[in-house]
Amino acid sequence: MRWILIDIAIALVALAVMAVLVLGLWRRVTSLGREVSRAGELVGRATEDLARVQDAAPHGGARPNELHTAYAPAPVRTGRTTRRSRSAAR
């Protein structure tokens, strides 16, 4: 009978430890969820502000890659055929 009580006590202690660990993890997850939600709202507002600024830009809201200025220069026309145009012609 004594061993059964010891086994039950060990099982209850193990369950209590697991409950404490799960509760701590639950608190961390809910805290992280709140932070992610706040960050999502911040990114959403920044995206709306960026879209509004781009629409009011002097180039009429065209993206930089459409203007060939920000990411890569416009292709230079030299009269000679480039590799790109040869492969596109095939």
Describe the structure.
The chain is an all-alpha fold. The protein has a domain of 48 residues. The protein has three helices and no strands.
What can be said about this structure in brief?
With 90 residues, the protein is mainly alpha-helical. The protein contains three helices and no strands. The protein has a domain at 21-68.
Mean pLDDT: 79
Q: How far from one another are the termini?
A: 88 Å
Helix content: over 70%
Report the C-alpha radius of gyration, rounded.
Answer: 31 Å
What is the strand tally?
0
Low-confidence parts lasting 5 or more residues at pLDDT below 50?
none
The assigned structural class equals mainly alpha
- Major sheet details: none
What is the helix tally? 3
Order of helices and strands: HHH
Indicate the overall shape: elongated
The fraction of residues assigned to DSSP E strands is under 5%
Topology readout:
Blueprint: H1 2-55, H2 64-67, H3 83-89
Key features?
0% strand, 90 residues, single chain, mainly alpha
